[in-house]
Amino acid sequence: xxxxxxxxxxxxxxxxxxxxxxxxxxxxxxxxxxxxxxxxxxxxxxxxxxxxxxxxxxxxxxxxxxxxxxxxxxxxxxxxxxxxxxxxxxxxxxxxxxxxxxxxxxxxxxxxxxxxxxxxxxxxxxxxxxxxxxxxxxxxxxxxxxxxxxxxxxxxxxxxxxxxxxxxxxxxxxxxxxxxxxxxxxxxxxxxxxxxxxxxxxxxxxxxxxxxxxxxxxxxxxxxxxxxxxxxxxxxxxxxxxxxxxxxxxxxxxxxxxxxxxxxxxxxxxxxxxxxxxxxxxxxxxxxxxxxxxxxxxxxxxxxxxxxxxxxxxxxxxxxxxxxxxxxxxxxxxxxxxxxxxxxxxxxxxxxxxxxxxxxxxxxxxxxxxxxxxxxxxxxxxxxxxxxxxxxxxxxxxxxxxxxxxxxxxxxxxxxxxxxxxxxxxxxxxxxxxxxxxxxxxxxxxxxxxxxxxxxxxxxxxxxxxxxxxxxxxxxxxxxxxxxxxxxxxxxxxxxxxxxxxxxxxxxxxxxxxxxxxxxxxxxxxxxxxxxxxxxxxxxxxxxxxxxxxxxxxxxxxxxxxxxxxxxxxxxxxxxxxxxxxxxxxxxxxxxxxxxxxxxxxxxxxxxxxxxxxxxxxxxxxxxxxxxxxxxxxxxxxxxxxxxxxxxxxxxxxxxxxxxxxxxxxxxxxxxxxxxxxxxxxxxxxxxxxxxxxxxxxxxxxxxxxxxxxxxxxxxxxxx
Length: 720
Fold this sequence. Notes:
The protein is mainly beta. It has nine helices and 44 strands. The strands form eleven sheets. The chain has a five-stranded antiparallel β-sheet, with no helix packed on it. It has a five-stranded mixed β-sheet with strand order 41-40-44-42-43. The longest helix is centred in the middle third of the chain and has 12 residues, at 329-340. The two termini are 31 Å apart. 44% of the residues are buried. The model is unreliable at 1-8, 150-165, 356-369, 507-527 and 713-720 (pLDDT under 50).
């Protein structure tokens, strides 16, 4: 057997991500981290990757890529030796990476919901993590185990926890200082009847609560702690930035320069200057000693993260996939000098009183009305990302997906090959979808989403095996070898995803693929048939990432993530049993290896058209596979009526048409049935009813002016 585990769990899903690795992010960038020398910039992206860039010579392509998460990467930090990168993700895991070799060293799986934030105390070697599961965990990263948790779920294996009561709601931000003397976390915890947003203070040595900070009226989204652990600064969805005295547990300063949620904060090493940014796209600099706030810039998109460089410049990440560097120190010095020499307020400064009054009355400040003018207009450097897919819709053939990216470009992508099949440029998505509409019905065998900025294709049992088509309708070329060959699209995709370890182990199994007729096909097929069988597998790119997850669609947890080329057969126990058995046996099966059954059939009556002088078939209700084409139905009529070419009236004969079926046509509800339309499409688009079909045959009445070469066909003796 390919999969040797008899205890493999059920309810596992396989998905794959169609993302060509081009060394750039393809969606928003949630977090940034700089090494101490400031020469390497690490980014955590919503495309499920983390990347490393050279700040001295930023290129379009990143220096290194860290790709094993299966959902948004929400935060990243460098450990003390700077040889290890830590990332956390919405896939509920924390991963430790070797920076040089780009290899995952360990995966920490104690959280049970999205892991939103990380904080590192370099002097203590302590890593803290916070998640939507309401837990803060403190990790001994040297031993790769949790040493305390707030609150705890109890001991699991050799991982020890210290139990404590904690947050009552999801945690979104976390901070500590280098010495690890204090940990501060921010959440959506309710603080009063009309307000949410609470900061909790923790003793990292015991995991005990040290206090809480109340004052925000909405979710606390970001927090930073001073080096001595006596103060912290928080930003909130209530659009304020607050400075707190941790010992006294009270707010000592509050600033209302923003008009929307504050998502990121950065401070200088003296904790005297704070930079803030968020949903309103503005970046402000506030001098805590004088309470002067300066509008530095307005980004193109909402700002997710700020990082201060050694030169006091700012690296920005946004909801788009770009990274920007703004050289703010020279202009700040000039602005401060100008203010000291002038009694008039600067056009770049913020009137906190006016802004606070505006927020209190729920009216955003208007342009030109106490709205500061940004000092800078353009970044010094920009690392451009790739546009993210933001909209998608399956075409009727259930292979191609019409997509629109973040810059408005519309194209189609074939999910069976992972390649773009057409590019329409910047056109209206809905109009293009309507233009590509066609009268073809194909069973749904997968689902797709674009959460990661690329298409993710999800395969669930038993839906994955629902689509059986003739090969030339499933994306393979037309020809005598393909016209009558049936393929199960989902099964062929499964074989393609795991071809690296399938071929050496399933030499005979492939001979049985794709009919339930599967079991009736002889294993003693000729070598050319075996070769044809392999040719009917799709060719996805080796870099396609395959993900195995466990659980329901709303709470699934990824348990494996590898590229097609990396699945070498050593981890087949991670795969769902139905997939392993189907690949082994060469046809669609359930977890027990039992065939999933024949393809659905459609009942119909085949009768002479009332205006035709042809004979009436002495035949009752017929049943045939739903993919049977109209031409095959006519071929069946020819065989039952014993029609020959000599039966055709002389005035109807046409040169080049030497088969009787070429002289017949099929109708449904007085609508002409195209020869290549299958029964499922006839029912949906012509009959428009779930009842049994009534199909009429007659001699062809209308001929094209110029005869076309007929499609090759053989007279059918029954329905395949």
